[in-house]
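Handout, section B. The chain below has 179 residues.
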Amino acid sequence: MNIEEQIPLLEEILKDWNEIIGSEYEGYKNHVYRMVHFCLALKDCNKEEREKIIIAGAFHDIGIWVEDTVDYIPPSIYPAMEYLKNRNLEAWSNEIELMITEHHKIRMYKDELYPLVELFRKGDLVDFSFGLFKFGIHKSYIKAVKAKFPNSDFHKNLGKRAARWFIKHPLNPAPMMKW
């Protein structure tokens, strides 16, 4: 499987968020690259499916920095919908929104109308779990993708944010997770 060092659409979208994300930009960018690669390793996607995965990937966690919160799913949706609207891609809105809102769903997402939602959930979980969950992706490919796009403290920074959140919201420790 091919590892793309540069995905032009992803670069184009993320460059506008560099200032907002600040010092955590490289970590987030690399996370998105890893999860996009894992999604594409799970399915031979056509051009449209690939574009949807890249767009959803770029925006799926952006609410962390937009609202400076661990409850980042809702604030991640608006920028994605604005992006689609500005590019006359509103027909993709429902699917992209579901890809974002369901990417931390614990159980499998089942909707034959939107199969990319489950694919996206799995791709993110491969990265979030450091490759513990593979869904059939070969261990050597996961290792190669991780080497090409290092963590750059992405998970460490999420952990710090989660700890601060937990102190303030002990009864809602992981608001981004869904059953």
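Note. The chain has one domain: 8-168. Compare this with the example in section A.
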